[in-house]
């Protein structure tokens, strides 16, 4: 756990540095609220650990990790506006705290700071741009065309959640100067972890307590949003089994990677287990 805590502190310190450099002060306060009010930092940890797994250093990947966290946070700000969700990470969501206009500007500011971090590497910029295209298609699909079966749901989950996870791992491989085969294998690992994460999120929305989860529950059903539980009428236990299958495929993909740091790889394997067992 010491390795994880050191990496998490590295990410958090750099995240604070980036946020503290934002001007003007009003935007800085709004971005700080959205970014530093909590969060598991799963995606930046994937970036850093992926880099270390294939022979890079944590410091090589931390800016990319912070960048992907900023992109993720920007997407959450917009999600909360769309859903009229007043709670995020156990505190007021950006729009509930500051209003709709400032929340939209906050999302723009987050994306600007993120791409400033990616801009030094064209491959990094391309990977994140592709992920954002997928994310945008997923978000638009969710609003306009509810999936009618499990295959359609899985495509949506890949776009809405898996794409940013894939980008997170690919950024780590890019930071380590990995070849294309390694980038792809780590990307598949993370995409499947992301899909498992989303399925588990659906289950938690259906069965968890809002105070334990740190955000409103029952949202998917109330808004008629596509949830695996709603779309397929699977039981929560059956949906969890789908998440487990994706996690197992993620582990299979990771086995194709030539590992330079077994300790870092062990944490990636642990993450694949965590996303299907988490309670919040």
List keywords for this structure.
isomerase, two-stranded antiparallel sheet, metal ion binding, Farnesyl Diphosphate Synthase, metal-binding, isoprene biosynthesis, transferase, 280 residues, 2 strands
- Described by its quaternary structure, the protein is single chain
Largest sheet report: 2 strands, antiparallel
Count helical runs. 14
> Looking at this structure, what is the CATH superfamily?
Farnesyl Diphosphate Synthase
Radius of gyration: 18 Å
Contiguous low-pLDDT stretches (5 residues minimum) are none
CATH architecture: Orthogonal Bundle
- Which structural class fits the helix and strand makeup? mainly alpha
How many separate domains make up the residues? Answer: 1
Distance, first to last CA: 20 Å
- Per DSSP E runs of 2 or more residues, the count of β-strands stands at 2
**Sequence of strands across the biggest β-sheet:** 1-2
Strand content: under 5%
Output the helix-strand order.
Answer: HHHHEEHHHHHHHHHH
Global mean pLDDT: 91
Helical content (DSSP H or I, runs of 4+): over 70%
CATH fold call = Farnesyl Diphosphate Synthase
List the helices and strands and how they pair.
Layout: H1 2-20, H2 25-36, H3 42-53, H4 58-83, E1 87-88, E2 91-92, H5 94-98, H6 100-118, H7 122-144, H8 150-175, H9 180-207, H10 210-213, H11 219-222, H12 228-232, H13 236-254, H14 262-277
Antiparallel strand pairs: 1-2
Helix pairs in contact: 1-2, 1-3, 1-4, 2-6, 3-4, 3-8, 3-14, 4-6, 4-8, 7-8, 8-9, 9-13, 9-14, 13-14
Tell me briefly what this model is:
Pfam families: polyprenyl_synt (PF00348). This protein is mainly α.
